[in-house]
Amino acid sequence: MLKKKPAGSGQPIVKQIQFADQKQEFNKRPTKIGRRSLSRSISQSSTDSYSSAASYTDSSDDETSPRDKQQKNTKGNGDFCIKNIKQADFGRREIEIAEQEMPALMALRKRAQGEKPLAGAKVVGCTHITAQTAVLMETLAALGAQCRWAACNIYSTQNEVAAALAEGGFSVFAWKGESEDDFWWCIDRCVNLEGWQPNMILDDGGDLTHWIYKKYPNMFKKIKGIVEESVTGVHRLYQLSKAGKLCVPAMNVNDSVTKQKFDNLYCCRESILDGLKRTTDVMFGGKQVIVCGYGEVGKGCCAALKAMGSIVYVTEIDPICALQACMDGFRLVKLNEVIRQVDIVITCTGNKNVVVREYLDRMKNGCIVCNMGHSNTEIDVASLRTPELTWERVRSQVDHVIWPDGKRIVLLAEGRLLNLSCSTVPTFVLSITATTQALALIELYNAPEGRYKQDVYLLPKKMDEYVASLHLPTFDAHLTELSDEQAKYLGLNKNGPFKPNYYRY
Fold first, then answer.
1. How far apart are the C-alpha atoms of 150 and 237, rounded to whole Å?
2. Of 9, 65, 237, 406, whose Cβ has the fewest other Cβ atoms within 10 Å?
3. What pTM does this model have?
């Protein structure tokens, strides 16, 4: 089946899956704590950092590296590395709030009381560590899994949530403001434990998968599958598959309908404004904004900014997405045509070198530059680390980069994912993605040997519909049911799936 390509991804044709019950070295630099980086993933998606990591930690915390602390939870367990275990009570309250907005995961827990579909599963994860992720992790544990977790982004970890997870017995290795060295050390601590061998991978961005391939390739002999949720990570999986190096089945969660439409579109439609407001207090009305990429993330950003009265331009490489932008009322341009006049530049392509030094040099004074894609390769931040430019910290996650003539741009989160680095995202939307991840893990873990080959697979339509149905009761929504005659007329099963695989929502 042909699957619509996300903007700039260049993904190949992928296969549909079935239910189990159906027939590089990286740059060395000193850090705040005097360590140097060890190695870097190819995409640099999660670790490049210019400013001191300590600037991003809570000012109430001491600046001692968690790696230099010996902490234990109230049960005497010390198999974790976080900022401060004493914050556990605060984190638990945040998790309890998140649970109220994640009905599908809570429903899965109830249904798993007598059945443990992940019994025996040893899941190693690398995602954003937030209250919402904590609900997912505790759900996986309720389903029978053992979990070890690290963060996929050095700035998005909620320290109090990590503390609550550690207090609850989870092996978590993450804190906000990690250095490059810390980032890879945390991943290694998750994977490299004597007597513990992971058999499932849950990744966001591909860094965990990359690390295991690089350092512990023999582990794949016992790993049943990989679940990946980001454009960046999925692209890496396709590269491995094309090169014949993908040695286990992989599940592409990113291109599931529920992930694309709800997480990428509706989530970003709300969180783009939140992130920009929290960091810059900018007024959107009348501002000229260019959004690079009109995939689902770009569509959400453009819709929100247009509704606030901004003048929105779009860049796009795909003629279909480009035509959609035009039909939605946006002017399609090349970046160099408007770079001197725009007030805000937002990247969301999943590509690299979208905003290079040439464009940064030509931006107007005070231009805000940020990224809504997973990878921090879209904005060429490395080109700004030169002697003639001055970096000035304004507040957490906000830097002025100042040119010799006095011109300055406002760079947010050093080019990393804006919404999760600088604000929050709607919990309800993350419930949809997390439920999809949980079901994908269940499917791959329980699938009989030989059902999935060493390739990248999409979720079945029926699973997408199931995820959506679990969230409808929140709205007191009532689905219309087909009559037997109607179902026969349409050639459908009354219980779905209701759309063919090629249908584009």
1. 20
2. 406
3. 0.76
Q: Residue 148 belongs to what H/E stretch?
A: strand 146-151
> Residue 426: CA atoms inside 13 Å, Cβ hemisphere, count?
16
CA angle, corner 442, sides to 143 and 158, nearest 5? 65
- Evaluated on CA atoms 295, 300, 305, 306, the torsion sign reads positive
Residue closest to 418 by CA, chosen among 329, 291, 258, 333: 291
The closest alpha carbon to 200, from 389, 28, 208, belongs to 208
Two tokens at 75? 């049960």
Q: Are 374 and 398 in contact (CB under 8 A)?
A: no
**355 contact partners, CB below 8 Å, separation of at least 6:** 292, 335, 345, 347, 369, 378, 379, 380
CA-to-CA distance for 36 and 26, rounded, in angstroms? 10
Quote the radius of gyration of the chain (alpha carbons, Å). 22
Exposed, middle or buried: residue 384 (CB in 10 Å: 0-12, 13-18, 19+)? buried
**CA distances in angstroms from 212 to 189, 201, 384, listed in the order given:** 12, 10, 32
- What distance in Å separates the CA atoms of residue 179 and residue 183, rounded to the nearest whole number? 6
For residue 485, the tally of other CB atoms under 10 A from its CB is 8
Q: How far is C-alpha 255 from the geometric centre of its chain's CA atoms?
A: 13
Ordered per-residue pLDDT tens for the chain, 505 residues: 444 444 444 555 445 545 444 443 333 334 444 443 333 333 344 443 333 333 333 444 567 899 999 999 999 999 999 999 999 999 999 999 999 999 999 999 988 777 899 999 999 999 999 999 999 999 999 999 999 999 998 888 999 999 999 999 999 999 999 999 999 999 999 999 999 999 999 999 999 999 999 999 999 999 999 999 888 899 999 999 999 999 999 999 988 888 878 878 888 999 999 999 999 999 999 999 999 999 999 999 999 999 999 999 999 999 999 999 999 999 999 999 999 999 999 999 989 999 999 999 999 999 999 999 877 889 999 999 999 999 999 998 999 999 999 999 999 999 998 988 888 888 998 899 999 999 999 999 999 988 999 999 988 888 889 999 999 999 999 999 999 999 999 999 998 899 887 787 8
Alpha helices in 243-313 (DSSP H): 257-258, 268-280, 296-307
Of 468, 35, 44, which is closest to residue 258 (Cα–Cα)?
468
State the Cα–Cα distance between residues 279 and 238, nearest whole angstrom.
Answer: 35
Q: Positive or negative CA dihedral for 273, 278, 280, 281?
A: positive
CB-count exposure of residue 75 (10 Å: 0-12, 13-18, 19+): exposed
